[in-house]
């Protein structure tokens, strides 16, 4: 083909989900439509993120979210964008957002058969410095959406383990924009071609290497770590054999997990004596990333159990997170077991 046509026949995300839908004879196309709403919302957020400096979208919005954290203007825009698009798709029965205290119940006339939990803009502390940030989402199937009558019903419904998730993914607004997602068979990564406005399949069947050479943790919290985390990190720096590991910590879960999926290693946000449950939230941070990590052949644990087996007690619950290369996580668990 002439060079100006090169790449224009690429496998786009839209085509990919349609092909997948065909492959699953029983599929009615609902998930396909839901994913196209997610895709559009991510494109809108990416365009706001890219223009933020110029359009004066940096800085605080003036409010605090449920966790008592200051909301950035972009946090608010990203949350509104996701909500609008998901409700308009008519494929969701309820939504849980990091930015909203209560679950959102969709009007019965616009209700679909899916529940979605999302962190509209993860890595808030990195926004104004133009460091990678992202959007994380987890999708669940609902048998009887019309039985949900109140926000409390939704809260109860969402308190199930990550094992029942049907799809999960994230968008990362980095030096390029990626959308990585899985419906449980393989993990596939797409890159936004800005000239076409299309996500193109660039990372088919992502596999997390069995061992890595990187550890990733906020070492500024080490005063408050428990002995198992201390010993493991010490071993990363002073191994009995081989070379010391490299430290990489971006401070955006999406970017730290994305690198871990590609290069291997371990990403950790443990509980410590100050934050007894850790920092990262189960439904829209830990669980969807654990889902992707497991499908990609990696592991994800709280140190006591697999992250996907945790049943949260409330929708904004936090959990300790250790995820990455299967053999590295096993090495951590061996140490953790000694201290139990
Ligand atoms: P956020 O949802 O307010 O952005 O917080 C979550 C983020 C994660 O992306 C990241 O892994 C972690 O917080 C970094 O926390 P810390 O700054 O304590 O290292
Ligand atoms: Mg977050």
From TrEMBL:
It catalyses: beta-D-fructose 1,6-bisphosphate + H2O = beta-D-fructose 6-phosphate + phosphate. Its EC number is 3.1.3.11. One of its GO terms (molecular function) is metal ion binding. One of its GO terms (biological process) is fructose 6-phosphate metabolic process. It holds the Pfam family FBPase. The keyword Metal-binding applies. Pathway: Carbohydrate biosynthesis. Keywords: Carbohydrate metabolism, Hydrolase, Magnesium, Metal-binding. CDD domains: FBPase (cd00354). The keyword Hydrolase applies. InterPro entries: FBPase_C_dom (IPR044015), FBPase_class-1 (IPR000146), FBPase_N (IPR033391), FBPtase (IPR028343), Fructose_bisphosphatase_AS (IPR020548). One of its GO terms (cellular component) is cytosol. Its cofactor is Mg(2+). Residues 11-204 form the Fructose-1-6-bisphosphatase class I N-terminal domain. Residues 209-334 form the Fructose-1-6-bisphosphatase class 1 C-terminal domain. Homotetramer. Belongs to the FBPase class 1 family. NCBIfam families: PRK09293.1-1, PRK09293.1-3. This is fructose-bisphosphatase.
């Amino acid at each position: 083909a002439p060079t100006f046509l090169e790449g224009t026949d690429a496998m786009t995300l839209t085509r990919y989900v349609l092909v997948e839908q065909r492959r699953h004879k029983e599929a009615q196309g609902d998930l396909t439509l839901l994913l196209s709403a997610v895709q559009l919302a991510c494109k809108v957020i990416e365009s706001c993120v890219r223009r933020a400096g110029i359009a004066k979208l940096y800085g605080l919005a003036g409010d605090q979210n449920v966790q008592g954290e200051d909301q950035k203007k972009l946090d608010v825009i990203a949350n509104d964008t996701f909500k609008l698009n998901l409700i308009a798709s008519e494929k969701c029965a309820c939504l849980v957002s990091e930015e909203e205290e209560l679950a959102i119940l969709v009007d019965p006339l616009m209700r679909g058969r899916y529940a979605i939990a999302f962190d509209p803009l993860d890595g808030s502390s990195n926004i104004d410095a133009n460091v990678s940030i992202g959007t994380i989402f987890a999708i669940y199937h609902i048998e009887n959406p019309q039985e949900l009558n109140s926000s409390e019903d939704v809260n109860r419904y969402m308190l199930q383990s990550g094992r029942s998730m049907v799809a999960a993914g994230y968008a990362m607004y980095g030096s390029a924009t990626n959308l990585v997602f899985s419906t449980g068979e393989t993990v596939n990564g797409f890159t936004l071609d800005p000239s076409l406005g299309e996500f193109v399949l660039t990372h088919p069947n992502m596999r997390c290497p069995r061992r890595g050479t990187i550890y990733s943790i906020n070492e500024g919290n080490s005063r408050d770590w428990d002995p198992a985390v201390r010993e493991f990190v010490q071993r990363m720096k002073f191994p009995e054999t081989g070379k010391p590991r490299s430290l990489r910590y971006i401070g955006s879960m999406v970017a730290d997990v994305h690198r871990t999926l590609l290069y291997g290693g371990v990403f950790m946000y443990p509980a410590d004596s100050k934050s007894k449950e850790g920092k990262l939230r189960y439904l829209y941070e830990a669980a969807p990333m654990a889902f992707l990590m497991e499908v990609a052949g990696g592991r994800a644990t709280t140190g006591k159990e697999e992250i996907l087996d945790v049943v949260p007690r409330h929708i904004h619950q936090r959990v300790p997170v250790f995820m990455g290369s299967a053999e590295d996580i096993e090495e951590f668990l061996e140490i953790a077991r000694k201290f139990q």
